[in-house]
Amino acid sequence: MARHQNSSTGDALGAEVVEVEGNSDSDVTIIEVKIPIKHPEDFDSIEVIGKKTQQPITQKRNAEWIKNPEEGFYSLRLHLKKAPGFEFRLRFIDNEKD
Q1: Which of 6, 19, 86, 95 keeps 20 to 30 A from 30, CA to CA?
Q2: Which pTM does this prediction carry?
């Protein structure tokens, strides 16, 4: 499995892609995104939106939250279909009615 250390940061949320894993035997790329939030349970779901299409991308598995206790925030692990040069944004969904 190939691992790449990439750094791509989002302006609005401050999210940063910190690792990309690919396996030549699989059509899945695993992307780890460091996100400066402390309570991921506040979100009901996460959508990955393709930059070119502006449409939701189907994830191969549910997104996983990974706690980083040393730094006090979480990372999000996404399982997406391989696509060279894929650019995306994340949409965090909170269905709570005010």
Answers
A1: 95
A2: 0.74
Domain boundaries in the chain?
2-93
> What SS3 state is found at 77?
strand
Give the list of residues 6+ apart from residue 52 with CB closer than 8 angstroms, or none.
87
Phi, psi dihedrals of residue 12, rounded to the nearest 5° = -70, -50
What does the chain come to in residues? 98
Q: Is 41 helix (H, G, I), strand (E, B) or coil?
A: helix
Each residue's pLDDT tens digit in the chain (98 positions)?
343 333 344 456 678 888 888 877 888 889 999 988 888 888 888 899 988 889 999 888 989 999 988 877 899 999 998 877 778 888 888 876 55
CATH number of 2-93: 2.60.40
